[in-house]
Write a structure and sequence with these properties.
Oligomer: single chain
Largest sheet: none
Structural class: mainly alpha
Number of helices: 3
Number of domains: 2
Shape: rod-shaped
Length: about 80
């Protein structure tokens, strides 16, 4: 692909000098720089997913884990105490 870009003189000279130091043509140097810039903007590295299955003492006595309302009530009573009505 052929394209025209406009650079200020100081930047253009710095880029040309760096290309010469690396033994590359100006076009090859700019292409490599563009690729590196795009790679660095890729999706950030994600930490591996870790499933936390329980915390604290584990399960609650006399709580059926298939009945989520009971589990929530047991957790709440442990954290906040028994509710009086």
């Amino acid at each position: 692909m052929k394209t025209t870009i406009i650079l200020d003189d100081e930047l253009g000279e710095r880029l040309r000098n760096q290309a010469r130091q690396e033994g590359k043509s100006f076009s090859a140097f700019l292409a490599d720089a563009g690729r590196k810039a795009l790679e660095s903007r890729s999706a950030p590295e994600r930490r591996p997913f870790q499933l936390i299955t329980f915390r604290g003492d584990g399960t609650y006595a006399n709580v059926d884990l298939d009945k989520t309302n009971e589990l929530i009530a047991a957790e709440d009573s442990k954290l906040y105490g028994e509710r009086s009505e």
